[in-house]
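Lecture 7 notes: from sequence to structure.
We start with the chain below.
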Amino acid sequence: QAQLAESGGGLVQAGGSLRLSCAASGYFFTGHNMGWFRQVPGKEREFVASINWNGRRIYYGDSVKGRFTASRDNAKNTVYLQMNSLKPEDTAVYYCAREAGTGAGRYDYWGQGTQVTVSS
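Predicted structure tokens for the same chain:
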């Protein structure tokens, strides 16, 4: 059974930085691309970033391009999201997810989420 666990969220002032981690277990980590998403209550879930199995192909949502950086350490079965120049509108619960299969375009396992709050 695959499991994902995010950590690293918290309260930060606008302009600050946070690094989220997502520890994966229970499956062959390098066999799957990974994604980061975020959601604000009452709004649709928003795509933040995706990273392929070897970390060489990374895509970002328009709202975070140039500020967020996704990476992964396959030796540690962990994906990261470095968030810089944070804005109040980045406030959300952040989730990591496993892509079901290469190019599947859907995600089959999700973490429990970690809250990020950016104060103005």
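Points to note: Residues 17 and 84 are 4 Å apart (CA to CA). The radius of gyration is 13 Å.
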